[in-house]
Structure formats: structure tokens, C-alpha cells
Amino acid sequence: MVQAVPQSETTPFYPRSPYVAAKMYAYWITVNYREAYDMFACNGILFNHKSPLRGETFVTRISTRAEAKIALALQKFLYLSNLAVQRDWGHAKDCIEAMWLILQQERPEDFVIAAGITTTVRDFVRMSFAELGIGVRFSGKDENGVIIGLNEELLNQYGLRSDKLFLCSTIVHVDSKCFRPADVDLLLGDPTKSKKKLGWEPNMILLP
């Protein structure tokens, strides 16, 4: 559940996990110190930002690690939860640049840092498999992912086990046990203020 789409600096917060609730403390204590003690204190409201250093318990790393193992015949399946969830994914490098720009402003303010584009988990998985030369299609009530094509040239380029991958094989399973009890279906940031006041533009955007 979200309070507005897209989400800007004025969108009311509605944390849906202990992790985000803890971030709310950090946000409001920053605002308090700025207003009470006239400190140059700013909040960067960063939407999902990723890099190869991302923790292995996050969905992007869970997916890419499993996909690599599947392509190397070290693992048979990738298990995921809700494939329809939409996220505004950006790159950590772009976010760091935005942070630096925030600190160069004359007045301390809060800024949403986001790509302004959403991608479903389903499309993320499909695109990352495609990078390895594996075409995947999701279908059926359970949305299992099935191999629909193999790019032998790309697979061989990476030294992957094309001999262990077969058309129509199911390699992605949706596991209802992995669903979060309280999740947000759609996160979409509005970076208008950051683009206008900071002159910031994301350089790396995930396009479905």
C-alpha cells in the first residue's frame, strides 16, 4: 500500500517493515536537528539502489546468484515470491553522486533520489537470465519460469553449461512461503526536485 504514486518529498510515510520503520527515526531525527539547532542536515530519500556489493539476502542478488549457478549447472531452480512487485531500481553510484550534490547546496533540504521508472521482479529476472543467454517466459497460475530459448554463442562466451539447459525446462518457481505479510506492490519515486535543484540525472537505469 502506498499513499501516492509517484512518491515525492511530500508523500506521507507509511512504513511496512521494521527495516523501514527504523529509517523513519533517522529521517525525523535529522529534521529535528536541522530545525532545532540550525544544523546543515539533509535527508536523501533513496529508492532501491543496487550494485554488485548488494547483500545476498536482497531479491536482486538472490536472483542473479541463483541464475549464475543454474547456468553453471550448480543449481536447478530459482525460488522467488511475488513476481508482480514493482520497484524503482537505480544504481548506487548514481545515488552517491546525488548525496554529494545535496551537500553542496546553500540550504539543507530533503530530496527524493530515484530513477522514476518501475520494473517488476518478473522483468528483472527475465532480463538477467537473458544476459546469460537464457530466454525465460513466465506463464500459468503459479507463474513458473520456463526456458524458451538459448543463445549458444553467448552461453559459450561466458563458459556456461549449455549442455545442461533444455527448452521447456522450468527453472523459476514462485514459493508462497516467501511472500511478505506486509509488502508494498509499487514503489515509484518522483525525482523532479532532485533534477531541478541539484541538476542530477541517473546515468544507469534498468529498462524492462
TrEMBL record:
Keywords per UniProt: Lyase
Alphabetical list of SUPFAM superfamilies matching this protein: NAD(P)-binding Rossmann-fold domains (SSF51735)
InterPro entries (alphabetical): GDP_Man_deHydtase, NAD(P)-bd_dom, NAD(P)-bd_dom_sf
E.C. designation(s): 4.2.1.47
UniProt cofactor(s): NADP(+)
Family: Belongs to the NAD(P)-dependent epimerase/dehydratase family. GDP-mannose 4,6-dehydratase subfamily.
Domain of life: Bacteria
Name of the protein this chain belongs to: GDP-mannose 4,6-dehydratase
Residue ranges constituting the NAD(P)-binding domain according to the UniProt record: 2-204
Naturally occurring in which organism (per UniProt): Pedobacter jeongneungensis
Pfam families: GDP_Man_Dehyd
Enzyme class label: lyase
